[in-house]
Amino acid sequence: SQQGEEDPQALSIQEGENATMNCSYKTSINNLQWYRQNSGRGLVHLILIRSNEREKHSGRLRVTLDTSKKSSSLLITASRAADTASYFCATDSTGANSKLTFGKGITLSVRP
Amino acid sequence: DGGITQSPKYLFRKEGQNVTLSCEQNLNHDAMYWYRQDPGQGLRLIYYSQIVNDFQKGDIAEGYSVSREKKESFPLTVTSAQKNPTAFYLCASSTLTGSRVYFGPGTRLTVT
């Protein structure tokens, strides 16, 4: 079952521009996480935001969470060619035996 | 140097053969996971384990088996019953289920 759904599926921007990626989910969560994956590699954790938090920053990353709309956004400011990768949101649902459920991912291309 | 290792990076097998993918972690994490990734499908959970000698089925466990005899190790066997085994397999671990997850580099399995 796919809990998180990212939007758009693919995004192409010019270096220096900001990239905004969205994630929607269906059930109540403990936290929402964003990961990055370079082609053919494992995923790397970017940021975790808890259900009682609304916004979080880490370097050029800004994550927001709106639990009333069951949605989150990841903003990458001043993008670089090296930001080219796939980005996934993952949700940790409430309840017994909770486990992370990943979306299908967003492919970001940053043109130099 | 702490982390998760998966071996081999590429694996080729003939149809009808069982194959075991290795996953080892030295992060002292209790929880370990196996995900399967297909193009355009994101990550799907195969099995996960929260403690030694115990594991639970994920969303797509059919045709797979696991063991957790040691905290550090969580091997995955892809059996001949798995109808479409060619995929990228990712092992991961975390301190607790639902917390930040650390991924291995992945094993690309090709079955012909």
Q: Can you characterise this structure?
A:
With 112 residues, chain A is mainly β. In chain A, 0% of the residues lie in helices and 58% in strands. In chain A, the strands form 2 sheets. In chain A, strands 2, 4, 5, 9, 10 and 11 form a 6-stranded mixed β-sheet that branches. With 112 residues, chain B is an all-beta fold. Chain B contains no helices and 11 strands.
The percent range for strand residues of chain B is: over 45%
Instruction: List segments of chain A where confidence is low: pLDDT < 50 over at least 5 consecutive residues.
Output: none
Give the mean pLDDT of chain B.
Answer: 93
- The number of distinct helices of chain A, counting runs of at least 4 residues, comes to 0
Element-by-element helix/strand order of chain B: EEEEEEEEEEE
Strand content of chain A: over 45%
Distance between the termini of chain A: 37 Å
What is the element string of chain A, with H for helices and E for strands?
EEEEEEEEEEE
**Morphology call of chain A:** globular
The largest sheet of chain A, given as strand count, sense and whether it forms a barrel, is: 6 strands, mixed
Major protein interface = A-B, 25 and 27 residues
Structural class of chain A: mainly beta
Got a strand count of chain A? 11
Number of DSSP strands of chain B? Answer: 11
**Percentage of residues assigned to helices of chain A:** under 10%
